[in-house]
Amino acid sequence: MPTLARPCPRARGPLASGQGTAERYADMSVFADEARKLAVWSKGRIISGWNPYMWRLDSYGGYMLFSAYGQGPYGWEIDHIDPNGSDDLSNLQPLYWLNNRRKSDKSPLSLLNDLLFKSGRDQR
């Protein structure tokens, strides 16, 4: 039966190494960022028959791969639903990177207004 590797007894974390409070909290911010990323990811649409921990759809139907956060052909980003809104989770969504570029910093209402007024100008 294989044995699990044991942690090195000499390994020292931030608390044991004598780091100050600021350094300890700076290290913990990584966990907060990861928790925020997971919370936003969970707002993506689950694809039936696909692993929801790996794949999701954004609100425009773009395929996103969790491990491709910020990079790659299936990369995704954390987007503000209302660009003028807060950083609260209720205003955040996962968005396929190309859809995020297309959306730019426009709210859904301003995108609709652009489409309506542009189509009206084209008909004149």
Show the helix and strand layout:
Blueprint: H1 21-41, E1 55-57, E2 63-65, E3 76-80, E4 92-96, H2 97-103, H3 108-122
Question: How many E-type strands?
Answer: 4
- Extract low-pLDDT stretches: 1-17, 120-124
**Integer-rounded radius of gyration:** 21 Å
SSE string, helices as H and strands as E: HEEEEHH
How far do the termini sit from each other?
78 Å
Q: What integer is the average pLDDT? A: 78
Largest sheet: 2 strands, antiparallel
Q: Could you estimate the helical fraction of the residues in percent?
A: 25-40%
Tell the overall outline: globular
Class inferred from helices and paired strands: alpha+beta
Strand order of the largest sheet: 1-2
Number of contiguous helices: 3
- Portion in strands: 5-15%
Summarize the structure.
With 124 residues, this protein is α+β, with helices and mostly antiparallel strands. The chain contains three helices and four strands.
3D architecture notes:
With 124 residues, the protein is an alpha+beta fold. The chain has a domain at 53-124. It contains three helices and four strands, in the order αββββαα. Strands 1-2 form a two-stranded antiparallel ribbon. It has a two-stranded antiparallel ribbon with strand order 3-4. Strand 1 and strand 2 (63-65) form a beta hairpin. It is globular. 10% of the residues are buried. The model is unreliable at 1-17 and 120-124 (pLDDT under 50).
